[in-house]
Amino acid sequence: MDKLPLDLPEFQAGWVWLVGGGPGDAGLLTLYALHALRSADVLIYDALVGDDVLKLAREGCVLEYAGKRGGKPSSKQADISQRLIQLAREGKRVLRLKGGDPFVFGRGGEEALALVAGNIPFRVVPGISSGIGGLAYAGIPVTHRDCNSAVTFLTGHNASGIVPDNINWAGLAQGSPVIVIYMAIKHLGDIAQKLMINGRSADEPVGIVSRASTPAQQVLETTLGTCVEDVARSGIEPPALVVVGEVVRLRSGLDWMGAIDGRVLTSDPLNIKDQSDKVVSA
Ligand code: SAH
Question: What is the pLDDT of residue 164?
Answer without folding.
Answer: 83
